[in-house]
Protein 1
Amino acid sequence: MLDNILSLKDKFDVFILDFFGVVWDGKNQIEGVTEHLSALHKEKKKMIFLSNSVRSSIEAEQIYAQRGFIKGVHYDEVVTSGDLAYDVFSSDNRKLKFYQFGHANKNLFANTKYQEVGNPEDADFIYIGEPQILENGIWKDVVNITPFEAELRKFYKLGLPLICANPDLRSPAGQYEDTVVRQGSVARFYEDLGGEVEYFGKPYPLIFDFALKNIDAPDNRIIMIGDTLETDILGGKSYGIKTALTMTGIAKENMEVEGFSSIGQYCGEVQIIPDYIIKTL
């Protein structure tokens, strides 16, 4: 196990990094990450945050800056699955009708030909918004999908496909000690019912094509670094680049919850094996 990301600096020119669980724990910066990121940036390494967030890259940059991560100092670019989804939606000339599930996202559909409808019975597809519940006018995260199961079964009976622009199953959230449900968990439940889901984001190859479209580097000089086996590591491996798993996020948490004594054993059980394991970024 490597101590930190600097152990890999001579092997790679392009570092693709997840944000949550890698540099940010949901409440604070993970210790030492800004120093390591700026050190790599000074050595002219290309640093890309690749996020399964439905926010635009511009919104993400603003949020990252508020948390102490500065473009041009700690990284070069942010690419989000929201960017990719908007790129696809805005280039589609079909006048499709969609219904928004959960906490709606209006920005992804601005300036598209898609039309939002108020009832799923009138829709061509369901867009999975952030899986939150509205309480007293405030949208709140949840720790399991139980509150949504009846609605998802209704969508399935209607035969509607779902679109998921954030394949993450769970993520840290400031108001909970535990991780909270994200769109990927909703999509997985729907697929288990037998429903159809279209994804944008890690681990699917299109997001890597999108992130690397302006990068001129051979695959063996590019590495994906993340805390989640099912999205970050599987995504990098499927794309044909090297991967590194950090011990500061979801994979470590899952390992402990499921009672494994080592991360190697846990990766073997899941059958997703990173090329490197690092204690912290």
Protein 2
Amino acid sequence: MSYKSIERSAVPLTQQDFASDQMVKWCPGCGDHAILAAIAKVFPEIGYKKESYCIVSGIGCSSRFPYYVNTYGFHSIHGRANAVASGVRIANRGLSVWVATGDGDSLAIGGNHFIHAIRRNIDLNIMLFNNKIYGLTKGQYSPTSDLGCVTKTSPYGTIEQPFLVGELVIGAQGTFFARAIDTNPKFITEVMLEAAKHDGTSVVELLQNCIIFADDTHKMITDKETKDEHQLILRHGEKMIFGKNKDKGIIMCGDGLKVITIGPNGEGMEDVLEHDMYSPTPGVHLMLAKMFPPHFPIALGVIRAAKFPTYDELLEEQITESSAKSNIKCMDDLLNSGDTWEIK
């Protein structure tokens, strides 16, 4: 496979090649462990040289990620991971740049950098860990905490409407949005591989459990008894079918989506939508990103992967074209350009 113009490894790499010598200091049971395990599997599968990866993080539990993967890494400051990563990628298009960030890091103090990296469509892979809480600073509510959530900073329940990550990404003109859950590392690997293939900003929302300060925050969609009824696994070109018996589907009804029960002989199947993740029009993608139980299943997998020019490519083209037309070819040309004076 060939994704982008990034140098590939001459020999096959394994998970051990990306194993760090640092002690992993996340709490036992934290969902971050599953995400780390998935990345350790996907990096060898992508096939780039170890030196071709760079992981940038901000501040938070998720932001310890660069220490735990044996690649280049940069632990930046709170909310600035996407800004630093943008600079890294623009300066060196030979790097595959991954951002490890959280719902507090990128959606609160880093919100401005987050939406503009997406709007510019810089070739970054953003892994947004969403546990709906500030874990590192011990349990304050975050921009994704559910309305009414009781935390240390909202003892009577939050009175703020939470961000929906997918809605925010698509609203910022995002070209790629996917979602996965920490209880399914194999599926995370599948989604991350699609993110790596995408040219432009890919955002993968990782629904992750904080066992200490927000345990079971995703229980409705991860509970073994009910998850089949509450999860819609999306794959391009396949019908949007879910349920324990695969007897429910998503159809378009008027100007919105609707859940139907498919008959025993396939009645209604012809109306069930087929997923088109490459559609340039974001309407259905936005509807899918906003679906949540109990009235709808949550959409998992790649929701949107539209193809648009990237900031990196357009910048390189602009520099090449401007350089070809310019009379300035060296520093002497620059110093002697414009108005000059000879002092005697």
